[in-house]
Description:
The complex is a heterodimer. In chain A, 21% of the residues lie in helices and 38% in strands.
Amino acid sequence: MSERVTNEVAVDQALDALRALGIAAGEVFLREAQSGSVEIKDGAIDSVIARGERGIGIRVLEEQRLGFAYTSDLSTDGIRACADTARRMSGVTEADKDLALATRPIDDADLDIYQAGIVNRALVERGNVALAVEDAARATDPRVTQFRKTTYSDSESTTIIATTTGMRGSYRESYCGAMTSAVATQDGERQIGYHGEAGRRFADLDPKRVGEQAARRAVEKLGARALSTQKLPVVLDPWMAMDLLRAIGPLFSADNVLKGRSLFASKVGQRVASERVTIVDDARRPRGLRSAPFDGEGVATTTQTLIDRGVLRGYLTSLKTARKLGVEPSGNARRGGYGSPSRVGTSNLYIDAGTDDTAAIARGLDRALAITSLLNLHTIDPVSGEFSLGATGNYLERGLRSHPVQGITIAGNLTQLLGAIVAVGTDLVFGPSGLGSPTLVISELSIGGA
Amino acid sequence: MTRTPSISAREAGQALRTALSRGGDWAELFWERHETLQIVLDDGHVEDAISGVDQGAGIRVTKGERTTYANGNVNDVDDLIALAGRAARGVEEGGALHEVGEVTPDELPRPSTVAIDPRSVAVERKVALLRRADQVARSLDPRVSQVTVSYGESVQEVLIANSDGLHRSDTRVRLNFAVHVVAKQGEVLESGFEALRGTSGFEMLSEEAVAEAAHTAARRAVLNVGAEPAPAGTYTVVLSSEAGGTLIHESVGHGLEADLNLKGLSVYSGRIGQKVASELITVIDDGTDPDKRGTAAMDDEGTPTQRTVLIENGVLRTYLSDRKHAAKLGIPRSGNARRESFRYLPICRMTTTMIAPGSSDPAEILRSVKDGVFVKKMGGGQVDVVSGNFAFEITECYRIRDGSLAEPLRGATLVGQGPKLMSEIDMVGNDLGYSTGTCGKDGQGAPVADAQPTIRIPSVVVGGKLK
C-alpha cells in the first residue's frame, strides 16, 4: 500500500509547499470523512455504501488577489502542484483591499458534535434503524403499503485549517440520519409522505418517530381534491416552515447585501417581519447539525440574533464582507468540502419559539389551508423574494380538517410572508439541515387552483 | 508515487478479483479523474478562480439481492486494491466464488466532438468572455443593477471495468457559461438568467453566443422587474419551443425511470403497450445527441448510450434503465445508468429528453388562443412521481389576448399531473427548442438537456398572486 501521511502531516507539507513558493499569506483546509449508508428494500438490506474522502483546498492571497485550488492527491507532488495552481489562480482574480486570511487564535469550544465510532457500528445495527423506520410507518396506518426509499446514513469527519501566518485549528464531527418516503394507497390513489431526521449521536435518532411522521404525511394526502383559486390564511407546521426559512437564509448574507441582491439591504434597525418573529443563526448550538467551532475561513463562529421581534439586527458575514461593512466577522463563511470555496451562509438558522396556541388560532379561522408538502422550493429566487410553489394541503374549517387538496400553488413574497405571520407556536423543532421553526400561521396567501 | 493516468486491463482484473475474493456474483470498478476550473466575475470584478482535481474509484459487488459499494479517493494501484479489499470485506461470506472474465479493452465512438480542449485555452481568453458578457448585460438598460457571470469547465475521465470482462473509457468535456442579472426598479428586485451548457469543446463559446446569452439574461431581468405579477388561476397555456423541456423532464421523464417502475411506484408502472398520452405525443431520450449537456459515449456502467423511444404516438414503449432494472423488468438496457461521481451508485436517469416535433405551425398555435398564457422560458421543476403531481417555474411569460402576445407576467408556476396533462395536449408544433439543467435525484446531480416543440395545453393551473 502506498505511504499514507497523517492529516496533520499533509497540512504541514502544504504549508511548507506554500512557503517554498515564497507565499506569505496562504491557507490550507483539509477534510477527511468516512461515511456510509444502508438502504433497505422488502424488509432486507438492499445496498450498503462505504465512502471515504480526503483532500485539501489551498487558498493563496497575493497582492490582495485570491487564488484557490484543491486536490485529492496528497502525495508530495500532488500537494506541491496544488499550491502552485492556487498561486496561479491568484493571478487571474482582481485585487480587493478587504480580502484577508484569519489571524486570530481559535477558542476551544466543545459543541458536543462528535461521537467516536459512529461509522464503525455493525451493519446489522445500522440496517435495523432503517427497518425500524419502515416497521413504525406500517404500524401507524395499514394503508401504508410501500416505500419509495428508506435509508440510514452516518459519517465522521475531521476538518483542519491552518495558515502560513500561524493560525491553526481542527475539529471532528459525527452525523447519523434516517429518512423514508412512505407510500399510502387507497382506492387506486397513491400518495407519498417524506420525513427525515438526523443527529450527532446514534442515540439521538428516533426511527419510530421518522416512520410515524412519514406515514402520517402520506395518509393525510389520501382523498385529495382540487381547490378553487382564492386567498386563504395558511398554517405552516414546523417542517413546512423550515422549507420556507431555508429560502429566507440568503437574504441575511452580507455578500448579497453588499452586491444589491438582498431585500434586506440597508434595512438594519427597521421592521422587516411581524413583531412575533425572532430569527437566530446559532453556530454554537450544542449538538447542532451545523454547529462548528470555526467557519471555512478559520474564524470563530457566533450566535447572532438576525431579526429581534420583527426588527432586522444585522447580517451574516465572512472576513471580507465584515471589513466592508465595518463590523466584527460573524464566522459564517460556510464551506462544503475541500473542493468548494467558502460562501457566506447560515449555520443553525431558526425561528425562535413563540407563545401562541396555534391550534386555537386556527379554530378561530372560518377557513384555512394547512400545507402538507411543497414542490419546487429550489426555484425560489432569493433576489426578488418571489415564490410560487406547487403544494398539497389540508383544507381546514374552524381548525378542523375538512379534506386534503392537491394540484394547487401558493404564491407570495418572502418579505411579505415574514410580515404576515400572525401566530408563532411554542413547538420549536430542528430538522436535519440545522434549520428550526415552530408552527406558523400566515394571515393570507394567494392559492392557485381549479 | 506518481499519479496513475488510468487503470489498465491487468490492474482492473486484479481489483475485480480482489473484490470477489470472499464471494459475490458480479463486481464492477468505476474509476474517475475529474478536473475542474471555475472563474466567477461578480459585481464587475473577477472574484473567484478555482482549479482542482478529484480522483477516485468505486468498487461494486453484488451478491443475490444485495449490493456493496466501497469508494474513496484513489491515487495509485495500491489504493485501488485496498478499496477492492474493503468492498470484499463488506460482502457476506459463503456461497460459490465467481471467476473474473478476461478483461478486454474496447472503444466506443464519441458522439460529441471537442475541437478545442478548454484546458488548452489561455485563462485570459476565458476572463475576456466573462467581461464581454458583463459589459453586454450592463449596457442593456439602466435598471440592470447587478451582474454575475461564471465560466465552468469540467473534464471527467472515466474507466469502467467489470467481472464480465468489460473495460471501457470515456472523457466528458462539459462547459457551463452562466449569466445572472439583477434589475432594480424602485423597491422591486428581479433576476434574469441564461446559460450556455454542453458536452463540447471551447468552440461552443463564441463571443457572439456569449453576448447573446448576456443580452437574454439582462432582457429577462428588465422585463420581469416591469411585469405584473402573474394572476393565479386556470388558463389555456401555450409553451413555446424556446421555453425548453422542463415540462417533459418533470411531468413524464422521471415517471419513466425503471427503478420506480420496478417498485410499482410510478404512475406509468405496468403500462407498457398502453396509451398514456395524446396521440400527438412522442417522447424520446437520446444520450447520443451530439454536444448536448446530457450526452456521453456510454453510461456510468459502460453501456453505450442510445436514442430510446419511450412513448410513441401516445403509447408507452419502454423505460429508462440500468443493468439491474433492465434485467428485472425484462426490457433492453437503454444506457441510462448515471452517477454524479465515483462516490455514488449509478441510478436510472435521463440524458436529453424531448417531445418530438408535430405538424402544427407554431404561429398558428398562438393565434388559436383567445385568452391565455404564453410561456417563453421555463426554469426549474419538481415532480412527485408517485402521484404524478409536478410544478415548474416560469422565468419569462406573457398574457395572450386575441391570439397575440400582450403584457409580460412575472412569478408564475405551472402545476399539474403528468399523465393527465399529456393526454390533454391538443396541438404540437413542427419546431424544436432545447434547454439545459442539472437534475437532482436521490441526492445526486446529473447534467441533462431537454427539448420540446411549441405545444398547447387547453386548461392548466397557473400559480401566481391574487390582487
